[in-house]
Structures
1.
Amino acid sequence: MNADDYEEGSVFKGLSLEWEVLTDLEFSGCRFEGCTLEHTRLVRCRFESCTFSGCRAAELDCKDSILLDCAFENCHLTGINWDALCGGGFMAPIETLDHCHLKYNYFTEMNLSGFDFSGSEILSSLFADCDLSKSKFNLCPLEQTEFFRCDLTGADFRQAAGYRIDLETNKLKKARFSFPEVVDLLNGLGIRID
């Protein structure tokens, strides 16, 4: 693609880019199937209402780039800083996340209220200063995933496992948890259960 390219409603299959720099590209309503972006730099790129299916993205370096209302299904996403793709937290980069595998992802100062993460795997990731009120993490493996200073009011963690939630810094009123995972929350308070 050339600089200043605009694509609307296009389908990209099997596209594979590694150690590339993409500049001034705009995609609207496009579909990406089985594509790979690894160690790629996105400069002033915009993806709006796009769908990513069976794609792999790893270690993206994003500068002045935006994702807006994009859908991800059966994707592997590694080392993604979502805050860098949401225009300063004013827009939602992700519309849906369906059966995806996320590892080393960062969600900072984002409004993800009511978002449904159910069925996706989120490993060794961080949610910090996010609004996750009424969000759903049902059936999510969350090993080594931390929640820090988040609003988890009414969030649903039933049948989720492996999460680390600091009881002192997160808002947890009306949040729902399953036994025995809920017992691990007490570890942070130094409480022993015999």
Note: The chain has a mean pLDDT of 89.
2.
Amino acid sequence: MNHLIKLAAGAFLFLTACGNDNTIVLYQVSDPQFGFYAKNADFVYETGTFTKAAEAINATSPDAVIYTGDIVHDHKDSLQWEGFFGIASTINPEIRQLSLPGNHDVYGKEGRVDLTYWEKYIGADRFSEKIGNVRLIGIDSNLYKYVEGSEADLEQKAWLEGELAKGKKGEMTLVLAHHPFFLKSADEPEEYFNIKPETRSYYTDLFRKAGVKAVICGHKHDNYVTADGEIPYITTSATGKPLGAAPSGVRVFVCEKGNLYHAYFALDEIPGSRAELIEAVKGLGGPAAVKRPLFF
């Protein structure tokens, strides 16, 4: 039995257990990246930050936690994986945990993607889950970043198109991935932290036609919020080591009456209850971090 099954055991029966107020609350935990801070010498820093995140998750009872990649820094290091799972397993099993691979979780470069260790420790590299009226679709961005046109990439594209087609009136569809499609503008050139424009166009067109509410990514270890037309493209900083102005933290999404609200929180500034968290994210109160453009 792999760790994904261990963490999710029992959770399938409770997908909406926390959402009994008709509001869906989601945590995005991106790039906890055990081992990054100390360059694989240890993962003391990441243990501290992810422990704080897990404690906040348990205190605020979201409906799901989504890990948008780079769970570990060295995908072959079993101790890094075990460090992550040791903390993730303390999260209330009624809270669904969903995971996507980042480039550090697999061998993702130089024209190939090796999912061996991801499949060993996690399992599937994508997901499609419905929580209340919110449809969460997670995809493996390593496939179109590093091996576009491969059998695996084409299979995922067909799967994605099929999952997006299942969307119904009144539902909110959120797409999640590790690599941002773009950081500032849909026409920006390719670099390490985004994907090439030709590939990007396929996905942005697909998301527009499918009526996707938002596209949510990680990888950059900093915060960027932009849009393609009416669709926000949200890049979230790291729960582990940050590389920009935002401190280690999480992004929280509140889905309510067809509206999507979100805010980035430093780990020490997450409100102490679900109700307080919802209020803070919606901008009605809460810590100053909610209203600081720097952390948006």
Note: The radius of gyration is 17 Å.
3.
Amino acid sequence: MNIKSLIHSKNENALAFFNILGPVILNGINFFTVPVFTRMLGTENYGIVSIYTTWVQVLSIVMGIQTGGTIVVSKAYFDEKEQNAYFSSTLFLSCITSAVITLLTMLFIQPISAFMKLDRVIVCLMLLQSFGSYVISFATLKFIYAKEASKNFLVSVLVSISSVVISLILIANIRDFSDRYWGRIIGYALPNIIIGAVLTVMILAKGKTFYQKTYWKFCLPLCLPLIFHHLSQIVLAQCDRIMLQQLLNDNGTVGIYSFVFTFVHILNIIWSALNNTWVPFYYDYVKQNNIEAIHRRSKNYMFLYTTLCAGFVLLSPEVVKLFAPEDFWSGIELIPIIASSCYMVFLYSFPVNFEFYHKKTLLIACGTCSAAVVNIVLNFLFIPLWGNIGAATATAISYIMLFLFHQIIAKYVIKQEYHYSWIMFLPGIVVMLLVSALFYVTVNLWYVRWPIGMALGGILLCRVYRNKSIF
């Protein structure tokens, strides 16, 4: 297959290639520049930047009201010729809500700035970046479900490279070390603002529809519960950092935790890319009632991700020491706990994909909100006692509960045939428990862990080659 045919192919392996490559480049460049930024910023500045990015994630969910989450469902209810009009109309709805939230924030900028412990100019940048980030995610979903993964790849590369280049230039030109977080924050903001604005104009111009009652009436009941679902996801993934800052008042601790979280987060990036590729084909199999394909491909998918997680955990301590100065090494002990959280996200995506297909977004939101509440309570209990380890443990327990909730809902509450039994998930869970135990026993014995990790990688490559498919 030549390059041109690969770019335009809608084969699942080609789509997976671009869906994985785009996010991996987007986050991978950031990941591989971590050694540079940790040294240029230090733990204090790194902690401030992580707090800023957490608030951006929260605001982008609220400002966009998650209209992009209805894209995949809309394809089952509206003709292909209506799709561009639907995208345009629902994105304009996001523009309206974003404008209202921005206006309200500007009216109360002083108390909001004081609460966030961030400069007012940074709060303004945060608002602009949040909208730009949302539009980029909206366009990304549009490309994914239209099976135009190469466009998704292009956007990811542009955002990633421009963000890093701008950040490095700005940080290098800030003389006062304590102000260097400004360079990284502006570097994050500008590419998202500019690229988000361009994509907004393109989608609105192509759809030429700003208000359509039918589209808004279809969109709002589906997207509004998703706001609470995604906000709760942010709480699950990010509230540890905010609560560490508030309860311990130590930006250095936040910086160490944030570094390890960012390091392990590559597992979530890979899962997201794989899931984005998997879902359109899974929904096709459900429509066709092709149970054999669902079971066979799902087992391949589980083997793939379980092996990746296990290998990552085993190889990670030495990689952390390579990528960060010694001030950050105390966070190595968090890796298996945070990796277990990532693995539970992977597991709960199976029942959630099933629920989403049947338009049960309210149930999805209820589960995630409940897990977020549990996480907050556990953080209050665990962080004063155990600091970073307490925060990581609270998140892991919350994700375990979230998986159990959705598995019960999908299997026993939704009156449709669910494709995944409890026993299907057991082998992967056992593997992750064993690998975590091995990690702590051999944390200083790289010559034990690395051969096992490399052997797992070899087995995975042989299996993919034999099947000629990642799923």
Note: The first helix runs from residue 3 to 8.
